[in-house]
Every structure is written in C-alpha cells, then in structure tokens.
Specification:
Elements (H helix, E strand, L loop, with lengths): L2 H12 L3 H20 L4 E3 L3 E8 L2 E4 L6 E4 L2 E8 L1 H8 L1
Antiparallel strand pairs: 1-2, 2-5, 3-4
Helix pairs in contact: 1-2
C-alpha cells in the first residue's frame, strides 16, 4: 500500500474529500516526524510505538574491496508493534 492508497481509504472511511484526507495524513506524518526530531516517542495504542534510537560508531567493511571502514554514529527510527497489530498480522 502506498500513500495515495491510504489517502483513498481515509477519504472513503471518514467521508472526506481526497484533499482533506491528504491534509489529515500529511499532518499526522509531520507530527510524528517532529516528535521524533525532538527525541520524543510516539505511542499509538494498539498499533505501535515509534522512537529515535542512537547507533554508535563502529567498524564495517567495504563490500567491494573488503577494506575496513569507520561507520560514524547516527540516529535512526525504531518501531515496536503493539499487541493488536501483532495479533492482526499473526491471524
């Protein structure tokens, strides 16, 4: 499923125009992004939790040459599915 498919589903189920559904989805995604930028977690009960995670610097290998390379520290996003999502997927 892609973003336009989500917009269509939101528009149909919430009885909104596609423009309003697009706005709603964009606002939701923007707010999740802003919270993660502030290092806050986002908990959607039943669906799951998003959180910023720090990855430390480490040594890796260049896959083409096999030479060791230094990989710098970075911040990534983690997602932990909620109970209802796990159950829906495992049925």
């Amino acid at each position: 499923m892609r973003k336009p498919d989500l917009v269509d589903a939101i528009a149909d189920r919430a009885d909104l125009t596609k423009d309003k559904a697009t706005d709603a989805l964009n606002i939701l995604l923007d707010e999740i992004t802003k919270a993660l930028e502030r290092k806050e977690s986002v908990n959607l009960i039943g669906f799951g939790s998003f959180e910023s995670r720090e990855r430390g610097a480490r040594m890796g290998k260049n896959p083409q040459t096999g030479e060791p390379i230094q990989i710098k520290a970075s911040t990534t996003v983690g997602f932990k599915p909620g109970k209802a999502l796990k159950e829906a997927v495992n049925d």
